[in-house]
Amino acid sequence: MDPVFSKIQQGVWTVWMILALLLYFRLNEFILLNHLHDVPDLASKEWSGSFKDIMLASPLIFFLLIVYYIGNKSLDLIISIIVGCYSMLNVLILQYFFYGLRPLDTFVYSYPKKEIFSAISSSNQSVVLVFIQFLLPILLVLYFKKKRIFFNSILNVKWILILSLIGISCLIVYKGKFFKHQISMNKSVFFFRNSFYYFLNESDELTNMVGIGSQYQTIFPRPDYISSSYPLLHKMDTSNNMGKYFIHSDKTPNICILIIEGLGDKFISNYKGINLMPFLDSLKFQSLYWDRFFTVGERSFAAVPSLTGSLPYGERGFMFLDQLPLHHTLMNVLNPNHYSSTYFIGQGAWFHNTDALFKYSNAKCIFDKDSFDQRFQKIIVGQDKFFWGYNDKDLFEQSIQVVKKQGFNTRLDVYFTGSSHAPFQIADESTYRQRFMDLIPVNSPYKLHFEKYEKQYLSLMFLDDALRNFIYAYQQLPEFNNTIFILTGDHPMTEIPIENSLWRYHVPLLMYSPLLKHPQTFHEVASHLDLYETLLSFLNREYGINIPNYSAALGHKLLFEPSYNDDKTIAFMNDNREIIDLFDNGKFLSNKSQLVKVDSSFNLIPFDDVVVKDSMINKLSCFQLMCRYTCQFNKILPPKDYFNGIGKNDFKVIFNESKNVSNDEFVGLSKDIDVSNQSILIQLDLELSNVMNSSCLFVVQAVDSKDSTLYWEGLQMKPGETRQTFSVKVPSLPVQLGSNKLKLYLWNKDKLPCGYNHLDIKLYQ
Q1: Quick one: CA torsion of 322, 323, 328, 330, rounded to 10 degrees?
Q2: Least C-beta-crowded within 10 Å: which of 233, 298, 560, 674?
Q3: Nearest by Cα to 505 from 557, 453, 570
Q4: pLDDT of 384 strictly over 80
């Protein structure tokens, strides 16, 4: 026996085991995707993916043979454990892909744990099926090992060496092109590769942002910028494009914004030969309707901040910021104008941290699943019996009762529906199934497609009925005739395959109202970002509503143009919370790599122009930096403009130049401050003389005349940074006979050297 073969015989078998596992997972992926989804050319994509898997494994195979040649007897056990762990993780990663045809990415590391639990609990994934997918290859491997299959041929070594060298050569030539296609890519490699870069760059901070404001304002020009220190700040445009379409009312109109889960524009028209949503289809012909409209994110977290405030995206989503910077929304601007704002959702308001945004904006009421009457039936899902919430019909019925009880001053209501979100549980499912089957033509070429996505389409039909019931019920209220309804999707339904990568963001916008003079369809390209200033300028010019003199809105106002107009730049945040897609004046850059032209029907036309592509990549990178800078350093709005915009005035300013370095446990930042019983916002800008660890806290403490604590909050320092910025909102304090005091200090728990070069504290009442 060849001595080389004898030494690496076990290694050869291990290599065959790895190759067999790769093929098994591809076959498993093909079977389940074919069962769950309607994917064109699935077999060829998976076959191509198998070759790519082998090429990606080639360096590992070559390395393994060398390691076995110089290794010891315990090596086989170690590698078997590693391969077993990989197999288990791969099965779990594939479950995520089966759900929405999106590969798992690093967003899982920063996603709220509560939402991850909610998604798992509501997924209705079969634990048994997942276990079988993992157990089956283990059993096959043990069987092959017992029968000594793949152990005996010397040709194995030679062929494996040749194949691994060919695979390595292909990897060098094609580089990262293997990661481009969603189906054929290896989902585990994609996840592990991105995880590596995520943790490698985890400490990357914006330490030098000199010039980012000027750079952004140059690349994204507008004539009314105020200051490069606040890149988005500009004069509020009070021109009134919207007013000519509405009858002027004697009373300021109510605004009702309905954010519809999973509502892509394609669903409200004849879709694959059937009309799924006849009510919305008819409503668009009674409304102002934008059919070239975009959301700015592939997930729900993007919809609320963009619609209500036209806000920057942050690094990984505005809703996921540790601290919200000063910003305006429709709620906090309209509240001083005698509007009463309420947020309605049939699930948990904590979903995507939307409750934090509405609390920040001083919404009068946040109504979620914990607020419903007992007469409504709870949706319980998953093996853990997770309380998902209530269906949309119940949400709207309950909200009507709440509106009646609250009464009508002037209302700003924001709704977020949920029935068309997984787990897609609806009431009276059998009735809707029969209706759905009756809709499908006998000779429809899409029968298989409709079968695979039946639950999703049933939920859309249910939602359409829920919206019809809501509008009809609202018509019975006294203020219906003075209400403007705004309907849009948060994003198209991600579980249903899309026609092209741009359609992932294509949603409708409808403005419906008895105040509307006549319906109209508009073909201008626009987005959620454009609604904020459009509404405020309309209310200001038509009804004298006080609005801020200055705005930091990302978007521009709607033009109300009937003809097609693609003069718009829109950056998108994808499913993995990355800003890597850009629409720019009729061109679309996908994944920072693929450039195409976009026609008036949103079809994508191949387009190859290196200069244009580089320009758009640069534009997108600048946009990313601006989003990080404005959110991380609280540079959306200056404090003065923020408080003027919501009808508040400055309270007190504390300014200190420096503090010598000390090892004290408690480092005072100011003298005790006398405060009233009113709520207070504190802004702190601190330049440390040395880097502190995360155990050091910025503490806000309110005490009464007897030094008893009325309020306490400790905020962690950002590790590795000398520049620290915080915003703290202290709630209204109890009325005291004596004076309440506010204490501001650093709690240096580890008693490390601590000092600062600059301190700026602003207090607003």
Answers
A1: 50
A2: 674
A3: 570
A4: no
Q: Provide, rounded to the nearest whole percent, the portion of the chain with pLDDT above 90.
A: 44
Give the mean model confidence (pLDDT) for residues 33-56: 78
Can you give the pLDDT at residue 189?
A: 80
Q: Identify the DSSP state of 488.
A: E
In the predicted model, is pLDDT for residue 535 greater than 90? yes
Helix (H) or strand (E) holding 466: helix 454-474
Token readout for 742 is: 């506010």
pLDDT tens digits for 733-755? 776 555 788 888 888 888 888 88
How many Cβ atoms sit within 10 Å of the Cβ of residue 258? 22
DSSP string computed for 77-130: HHHHHHHHHHHHHHHHHHHHHHHHS----THHHHS-HHHHHHHHHHS---HHHH
Going edge to edge, which strands form the sheet with 569-572? 569-572, 581-584, 587-590, 594-598, 604-606
Could you give the CA distance from residue 92 to residue 114 in angstroms, rounded to a whole number? Answer: 19
Residue with tokens 């305006």: 328
Collapsing DSSP states into helix, strand and coil, what is residue 485? strand
* Closest CA relative to residue 489, chosen from 647, 257, 763: 257
Angle ∠(210,213,215) on CA atoms, nearest 5? 90
In the three-class reduction of DSSP (H, G, I as helix; E, B as strand; rest coil), residue 192 is classed as helix
Closest CA to 329 of 305, 351, 350, 300: 305
* Cα distance between residue 141 and residue 157, in whole Å: 19
Distance CA 576, CA 219 (A): 26
User: Cβ(417)–Cβ(488) under 8 Å?
Assistant: no
**What SS3 class is residue 628?**
helix
Q: Which of 351-360, 393-402, 625-634, 754-763 has the highest mean pLDDT?
A: 393-402
Residues in the chain: 765
Question: In this predicted structure, which of 198-202, 227-231, 545-549 has the lowest mean pLDDT?
Answer: 198-202
Helix (H, G, I), strand (E, B) or coil at 67: helix
**Distance between CA atoms of 718 and 686, rounded to whole angstroms?**
12
Closest CA to 267 of 453, 423, 122: 453
Report the pLDDT averaged over residues 595-611.
Answer: 94
pTM value surpassing 0.70: yes
CA 682/CA 759 separation, integer angstroms: 13
Answer whether the bond into residue 423 is a cis peptide, omega within 30°: yes
Count of beta carbons in the 10 Å neighbourhood of residue 358: 24
CB 576 within 8 Å of CB 494: no
User: Token digits for 50?
Assistant: 């198998």
The reported pLDDT for the residue numbered 488 is: 98
Dihedral pair phi/psi, residue 148, rounded to 5°: 55, 40
Tokens read off for 307 = 């619609």
Structure tokens of 176? 């990262």
Is the predicted pLDDT of residue 549 greater than 60, yes or no?
Answer: yes
The DSSP call for residue 729 is: E
Give the contacts of 158 (CB within 8 A, at least 6 positions apart): none
Amino acid type, 405: K
**All residues at 6 or more sequence positions from 458 whose CB lies less than 8 Å from its CB, including other chains:** 424, 426, 429, 432, 433, 436
Pairing of strands 587-590, 594-598: antiparallel
Question: What is the distance between the alpha carbons of residues 30 and 36, in angstroms, rounded to a whole number?
Answer: 10
Q: Residue 736 contacts by C-beta under 8 Å, 6 or more apart in sequence?
A: 677, 704, 705
Q: Which domains does the chain have, with CATH numbers?
A: 3-200 (no CATH), 213-221+233-245+252-632 (3.40.720.10), 649-764 (2.60.120.660)
Q: Which of 63-77, 699-713, 745-759 has the lowest mean pLDDT?
A: 63-77
d(CA 465, CA 472): 11
Q: Give the residue from 170, 193, 195 showing the smallest Cα distance to 48.
A: 170
Comparing 400 with 30, the larger pLDDT belongs to: 400
Is residue 515 pLDDT above 90, yes or no?
A: yes
Residue type, position 109, single letter: Y
Residue with the bigger pLDDT between 685 and 75: it is 685
